[in-house]
TrEMBL record:
Originating species: Cellulomonas alba
Enzyme class: transferase
InterPro entries for the chain: Acetyltransf_17, Acetyltransferase_Eis, Acyl_CoA_acyltransferase, Eis_dom, NAcTrfase_Eis, SCP2_sterol-bd_dom_sf
Keyword Acyltransferase: yes
Enhanced intracellular survival protein domain mapped to chain residues: 312-419
Subunit structure comment from the entry: Homohexamer; trimer of dimers.
Domain Eis-like acetyltransferase: 187-301
Pfam families listed in its UniProt record: Acetyltransf_17 (PF17668), Acetyltransf_9 (PF13527), SCP2_2 (PF13530)
Binding residues for acetyl-CoA: 94-99
Name under which the protein is recorded: GNAT family N-acetyltransferase
Hydrolase found in the keyword field: no
GO molecular function: acyltransferase activity
Length: 422
């Protein structure tokens, strides 16, 4: 357990504390919120999930919050505490405040019955020490105008509609399609509260960086049923060779391949365009399969969500497995000793759609695989191979063949990933 400097204390946050809470966010991240913009954007953290470290003089020295998510995992879903807004004042850095806040976050999450925590890392070097593992990657593509796509039946029958985003009017279309499109992708949490939804669709001029207002492209069946949408904006660029507008796509959600094809076909064929920047895409996104010349799309790979198992048996039993396995894992967990030690994971009850369920219980039997909770969190969503960690020397195989068998069980057919940064 970490300790705070003398006189500092973990403190709850109320609506009255919001200005000083925001102030620490601005000091930590290095920006100044425009008051007119701040006034229009709802505070997206529930007050009982916002936490501060208060100094003896009553100022806040550090803050964080969390979102209540139901996170899709292989074959199911799990209550998840989405850690966010982590910030320590620059003049209070490296005094153990984040350490203390992580302890508070784990304790509070477990108290609420959330066996898993997830986050986006501002810098990837920060969170491994706390047992978070990088559980997914995303890819961003820079695409030339008119990049060709393979045909998809049904795409041409869909109609395309263009609107300027209006948070109130488009809330239902965007968020119900997003939830439906995300349901079976591990890690793809949805915007779970009205405040988070409104914040995501907010488009104040201060956030546009010289580009146009946020546009909403939606595709519909002949009967008018929406099947997908893209949020994007263009920035004008007139050079000596003519127009070279940049199209930046923030999010695409599609219920099927025809909708994805129709949306991307329209986005890649906007007039006056030079390049189209894709949003964060899962590494198996349909667009990557549909591009006729994928080499012309310049990819950038980045870590996406990080996952921390807080209640190891509950977390491992909440997901399903791709192959049968009976393995004893010897887990190290310096921060949550209740997870440390030997656990037997045994699959049971195969279901054709969701795979194998598993029971997880303590055991005194010899371990087959020894690993840290960080690697278990990384493999949890099915997108990282335990075999790869063994080859990198990050876990130990004690029974020959056990790592390959466990890796096959943990792997999943749909790559993990989340489409928005929380
Ligand atoms: C989920 C999110 O919200 S991500 C956003 C994170 N926030 C930011 O990046 C904003 C700017 N940075 C900050 O506010 C702070 O520097 C924080 C929050 C990253 C760290 O806060 P601090 O109170 O200084 O952390 P603390 O003193 O508890 O140190 C924790 C440990 O992490 C390490 N650490 C902290 N920041 C970093 C970093 N950026 N890179 C590498 N290591 C780091 C420390 O060295 C320390 O290691 P140790 O326990 O082995 O000694």
């Amino acid at each position: 357990m970490s300790t705070l400097p003398e006189g500092y204390r973990i403190s709850p946050v109320t609506a009255d504390d919001l200005p000083r809470f925001r102030h620490v966010l601005e000091l930590g991240f290095g920006f100044t919120g425009d008051p007119d913009t701040v006034a229009t954007i709802p505070f997206s953290i529930a007050y009982d999930r916002a936490v501060a470290v208060e100094r003896p003089d009553g100022e806040y020295a550090a803050i964080h919050g969390s979102y209540e998510f139901t996170m899709p995992v292989p074959g199911g879903a799990v209550p998840c505490s989405g850690l966010t807004w982590v910030s320590t004042r620059p003049d209070e850095r490296r005094r153990g405040l984040l350490n203390a806040m992580i302890d508070a976050h784990f304790e509070r999450s477990l108290g609420r019955g959330e066996p898993v925590s997830a986050l986006y890392a501002a810098e990837p070097a920060i969170y491994g020490r706390f047992g978070y593992g990088s559980a997914a990657d995303d890819v961003r593509l820079t695409l030339p105008r008119r990049a060709a796509l393979r045909d998809v039946p049904g795409s041409a029958a869909l109609t395309v509609r263009l609107d300027t985003i209006d948070a109130a009017r488009h809330d239902d279309l965007v968020h119900s399609l997003h939830a439906a499109a995300s349901a079976h992708r591990p890690g793809a949490v949805t915007r779970s509260t009205p405040e988070l939804r409104a914040r995501f669709l907010a488009d104040p001029p201060a956030w546009r960086n010289g580009a146009e207002a946020q546009r909403l492209l939606s595709v519909h069946t002949a009967e008018g049923e929406p099947r997908g949408y893209a949020l994007f904006r263009r920035k004008e660029d007139w050079g000596p060779a003519g127009p070279q507008n940049k199209v930046t796509v923030e999010e695409v959600a599609a219920l099927d391949a025809a909708a994805a094809h129709r949306l991307w076909g329209a986005l890649l064929d906007l007039d006056l365009t030079g390049t189209v920047e894709s949003p964060m895409l899962p590494v198996d996104d349909p667009l990557l399969q549909l591009l006729v010349e994928p080499r012309r799309a310049t990819p950038r790979l980045t870590d996406n969500v990080w996952v921390r198992l807080l209640d190891l048996p509950a977390a491992l039993e909440a997901r399903r497995y791709s192959a049968p396995v009976d393995v004893v894992l010897d887990v190290t967990d310096a921060r949550l000793p209740s997870n440390a030690g030997r656990w037997r994971l045994t699959t049971r009850d195969h279901d054709a759609t969701t795979g194998w369920a598993a029971s997880v219980s303590r055991t005194d039997d010899d371990a087959d695989v020894a690993l840290d909770v960080r690697e278990l969190g990384a493999a949890y969503l099915g997108g990282r191979s335990l075999e790869a960690y063994a080859r990198a020397g990050l876990l130990e195989e004690r029974t020959p063949g056990a790592v390959a068998q466990t890796a096959a069980a943990f792997g999943w057919a749909v790559a993990p990933g989340c489409s928005w940064v929380f």
